[in-house]
Amino acid sequence: MITARFAAALGSFRLDAAFEIPGSGVTALFGPSGCGKTTVLRCMAGLARLADGHLAINGDVWQDGRTFLAPHRRPIGYVFQEASLFPHMSVRDNLLYGFKRAKAVRPAVGFDDVVDLLGIGRLFDRPPTLLSGGERQRVAIGRALLSQPRLLLMDEPLSALDRFSKDDILPYLERLHGALSIPVVYVSHDIAEVERLADTLVLMKEGTVQAAGPLRDVLADPALPLARMPQAATVFEARVEAVDAAYGLTEVSVPGGRLLVPGDLGARGTARRVRVLASDVSLGRQAPVDTTILNALPAVILAGEPTSDHQMTVFLALGTDGQGARLLARISRKSWDALGFAPGDAVVARVKGMALTDQSAQKVAPVHGEA
Amino acid sequence: MIDPAMAETVWLTVRLAAITTVALLVLGTPLAWWLARTDAWYKEIVGALVALPIVLPPTVLGFYLLIAMSPTSPLTQMLGGRSLAFSFEGLVVGSVIYSLPFVVNPIRNAFEAIGTRPLEVAATLRASPFDTFFSVAVPLASPGFLTGAVLGFAHTIGEFGVVLMIGGSIPGETKVLSIAIFDYVETLQWDKAHLLSGGMLVFSFVVIFLMMLIEKRLGGRLAR
Predict the structure, then answer these.
(1) Which residues in chain A are closer than 8 Å to B125, comparing Cβ atoms?
(2) Rounded Cα distance, B61 and B191, in Å
(3) Dihedral sign of CA atoms B213, B214, B220, B223 in order
(4) Which end of chain B is less congested by CB atoms within 10 angstroms, N or C?
(5) Does pLDDT of A188 surpass 80?
(6) Residue ranges of the alpha helices (H) in A180-224?
(7) Within 13 Å of residue B134, how many CA atoms lie on the same side as its CB?
């Protein structure tokens, strides 16, 4: 368990952020630019010191009252927006910088493991100036991991990269997520990144924490602004049930229903993360007939609210009994009125497309029958 | 052509410049670091004091040093009554003050150019501030150290006004190159003045030229 609270007036900006997050998995600090997320991360690292602060990591107090652990005494790894490799050292020496200083008798994070995981072995003897942006950031992540952190802090590690480098590095971050047990706090203002990587979401606004909780709950919470964003989406933890090799489809179960997803997603029981855009979900009273859409799930309307003059965001719970996972749908107000939807109604949600978030090879995949 | 007296003068000058440069690197580096990192309100006052010898006439500096080194001054009392005036040690003290800005300012600028990021990175990788200074700050500021050392050395070699005021012209003790050239001209020994002046001309060119070459290489290597 990680408990944090940082408060201070920084010029005209007032920071008062407090949250409690699990001591494992990836937590995203998400919010618009200037909401104080980077300041919070710097406070967690000890790079910034606010007089009124408290930080405890799995029982160890790093800051409280007059207690303040200097950054070099905190077992953290920190990945900055720009890779910030030491220009006077080779890639190898950059990687070894923290590894040597961590003085671990039996390093939990092995040198070769990290090098393999991030695919940076062939860069060893190059000076950082000769690396691409994506390669540099991968080395920076490796360097942070090799310092044997008990907490990995990442400050928008992808924001300084172009689209191409981002796609190059995201899979490595996802592999990291699976391979390491170190808790990660990840600052981002890109919701797509958050949906791919995070387990827990801390939503920040103007220096305060609006909400903190499991990603799927915060994303689909009617009281929060995330569900109203144009690119609002739902994230499911899905489990592979069966693979239909003939049609190239995999059946996965999510709480309250089953979905057909293109491709072979692995053996039965494999956990995958599936992301469904609200705009890819339409609603009907009955199960669709004569349609190319494969996925039609029974659901119950929890609430519907106008997102704009002509658009509604509908909050659904999967299953005929409405006990399953949350799902967001974005429909026109005309349809809402024409079909006379109201909270409590049983409906059928048709999912036009979905994306596996935890596998780079599979981008957004349409799930039309003819696809 | 080069008589023993001339050789002695050259050796004395080189020794003075070398000792001064080493002393300035040792004293100037922490000073430059402090100037580059501190937020103290009096930072630029100290900065201006360090830079003062650039604009101050050497004779003025020499005059005050001579006063400070007089037999009755507090400094001389502190040193047990032994005056530093007209001694090699006195020249070293004078040269250190005279060449201070030429060493401190390039190092300070180099430290400032590093910014805080590499130091923060080092801290998050378990390096103590002391460790960070030697493993990150000094290597990254190496072009500044090179410039500072070369300028400090060359500037001390050419020192005249301050030496004239506090050193005089004692062979083997305070008679440095520029004083010797002056003496040769005064006594109409043009050939010797030519030899030393020509030597200085070549030396100065080589120093500046080498420095520019090395700086270019270092700069290229450290560029992001």
Answers:
(1) 72, 97-98, 101, 143-144, 147
(2) 32
(3) negative
(4) N
(5) yes
(6) 191-197, 215-219
(7) 3
Q: Per residue in B105-118, is it b (16+ CB within 10 Å) or e — as a string?
A: bbbbbbbeebeeeb
Interface test with A, best of B114, B117, B120, B124 (most A CBs within 10 A): B124
CA distance B90 to B69: 8
For residue B34, give Cα distances in angstroms to A221, B30, B88, B118: 52, 6, 30, 17
Give the per-residue pLDDT at A366: 39
For chain B, the distance separating the N- and C-terminal CA atoms, rounded to the nearest angstrom, is: 51
* Dihedral over alpha carbons A175, A180, A184, A186 (to 10 degrees): -10
In A96-155, the residues whose Cβ lies within 8 Å of chain B are: 97-98, 101-102, 127-129, 143-144, 147
The pLDDT value given to residue A105: 73
Pick B136's closest partner by Cβ from A78, A86, A127: A86
Which residue reads 């996925």 in tokens? A295
Q: What is the mean pLDDT of chain B?
A: 91
Among A34, A137, A29, smallest CA distance to A80 is for A137
A216-255 pLDDT, tens digit each: 889 888 888 888 888 888 888 888 999 888 988 889 998 8
Beta strand A26-30 with A184-188 is: parallel
A51, A57 Cβ separation under 8 angstroms: no
Residue A133's pLDDT band (cuts 50, 70, 90): confident
Sign of CA dihedral B56, B58, B64, B68: positive
Using 50, 70 and 90 to split pLDDT, how confident is the model at B223? low
* Residue A361 pLDDT greater than 70, yes or no: no
Q: What is the pLDDT of residue A358?
A: 58
d(CA A340, CA B213): 80
Q: ipTM higher than 0.90? A: no
- CB-nearest to A87 from B124, B132, B224 is B224
What's the pTM value of the predicted model, to 2 decimals?
0.84
- All residues at 6 or more sequence positions from A289 whose CB lies less than 8 Å from its CB, including other chains: none
Tell me phi and psi for residue A190, to 5 degrees.
-110, 110
